[in-house]
Amino acid sequence: MLILLMAAGIAAQILAERRPPMERTRRRLGIAALATLAAVPVVALGALSFTERGAGGTISDRVADLTGRDVTTPENRPSRLTETASVRSIYWERAADVWKAHPVGGAGAGAFAEAQLRFRMKPAQGKHAHGYMHQTLADLGLVGLAVSLAALVAWLLAVRNTLALRRGRIASGREWSAERTALTALTLVAVVFGLHSALDWTWFVPAVAITGLFAAGWVAGRGPLGAPATQGAVPPLEAVDPARPSGRKLQRRVAGALALAALAVLAVLAVAQPWRAQQKGEEALRLS
Fold it and tell me: Which residues form the O-antigen ligase-related domain (predicted)?
């Protein structure tokens, strides 16, 4: 499925570049997409109304599964995508207990896994609080939460400066250049990463965290659109013409690149060994 979606996206991009649709066609496609998105909850509510419990009863039952503490931990199977049962409320309650015991500075960075044990009343066990705010309060207390909020405010101000957002004013169609559209997409990537991290331990997954942080950093460091390079904006690629190294300079750079690649391989091995040991340990526990 992923390969098909990627192929469809590449084909659509090539077609759009070779035969770009007219503005009227793009507007119609946008309206159709928004209408389809708005119809999804209506169709979902209509389908729920024909269930045995009705729309209200089904939603109430699913909310109880999501927030209840007397539920079993869902197994990591494909069917989990359609399940609403969750034990997050248990982890969040433990994180709140840890924070109450250490309100200012928290229990220590990454200490939730051990600090929660004294408050464990249910068999569910997790290494993370499954929520950035809960994990931050438990590990770093009010100090850590204040630092995180300060970083969030600084990033929002930088995004406002980059995208030239003004109160009560929406950019017209002529102002939506290709770069502005791309920067907006990167901003939304960072926003989705932050929102998802509020409900899960997404920021602990390196690939996801690096993507979200890279997008956030790129938008914040871009500088205002249309500003010259002296004001902090990145110069366009066509304005950059670096000299191609040769001779000893090229040899030194090749040696540096090889050394960096070797360091990356060593780092991967250093990370892989503890992971393999943990996998073997969990396998031994299952066999016992």
Answer: 22-147
List, in sequence order, the alpha helices (H) in 73-205: 88-101, 112-115, 132-163, 178-197
249-286 pLDDT, tens digit each = 788 888 888 999 999 888 888 878 877 877 777 777 67
For the chain, how many helices (H) and strands (E)?
9, 0
Sequence-separated (6 or more) residues with CB below 8 Å from residue 59: 48
**Residues in CB range of 102: below 8 A, 6 or more apart:** 115, 138, 141
With contact defined as beta carbons under 8 Å apart, do 30 and 23 qualify?
Answer: no
Residue 166 has what DSSP assignment? B
CA distance 278 to 224: 47
Separation between Cα atoms, residue 91 and residue 132, nearest integer Å? 12
Q: Which residues of 252-264 are buried (b: 16+ CB within 10 A; e: fewer)?
A: eeeeeeeeeeeee
Cβ atoms of 105 and 139 closer than 8 Å: no
Give the torsion through C-alpha atoms of 83, 84, 85, 89, to 10 deg.
Answer: 150
List C-alpha distances in Å: 11 to 32, 33, 106, 189: 20, 19, 51, 22
